[in-house]
Specification:
Elements (H helix, E strand, L loop, with lengths): L2 E5 L3 H13 L3 E5 L2 H11 L3 E5 L7 H10 L8 E5 L5 H8 L4 E4 L4 H12 L1 H4 L3 E3 L7 E3 L2
Parallel strand pairs: 1-2, 1-3, 3-4, 4-5
Antiparallel strand pairs: 6-7
């Protein structure tokens, strides 16, 4: 079972995300602010983090910077959710390593697509291209 850390200060949205994640067969962990998110990421090592930008105590872009800057958590994909559009906090989140930005309101199907994209077994299998002279590229899965 894969773990998803939901970082969201709105309790209704946090509960809805948790329900979607659990019904998709994954474990949901919740944090209500950026400081708690950084601590839980280090403690629980989730497979994915859904990070709100407008958080109390530490903004989502600041929490993302700390998570992506720490050796034990830098490999965890962080998908930022925001209602603020593509402002400076969204830009900073991408600059410090967020995988992508989801604009709120987010539909259930968008959340399910994100879960599939980052948590499916296919997402974890790297492919390597070995170009051969005069031949098409061959994809070899290690």
């Amino acid at each position: 079972m894969k773990k998803v850390l939901i970082v969201e200060d709105d309790s209704d949205w946090r509960q809805l995300l948790s329900m979607i994640i659990q019904r998709s067969g994954h474990d949901a962990i919740s944090a209500t602010n950026g400081r708690e998110a950084v601590a839980l990421a280090a403690l629980k090592h989730p497979d994915l983090i859904l990070m709100d930008l407008g958080l109390p105590e530490m903004t989502g872009d600041e929490a993302t910077a700390q998570i992506k800057g720490a050796p034990g958590t830098k490999g965890i994909p962080v998908v930022v959710q925001t209602a603020f559009g593509s402002g400076p906090n969204s830009k900073r989140a991408l600059e410090v390593g967020a995988a992508e930005i989801m604009q709120k309101p987010v539909s259930i199907s968008q959340v399910q697509a994100i879960l599939k994209k980052y948590l499916s077994d296919e997402a974890k299998v790297p492919t390597v291209d070995y170009p051969l002279p005069g031949k098409p590229t061959i994809n070899i899965v290690p």
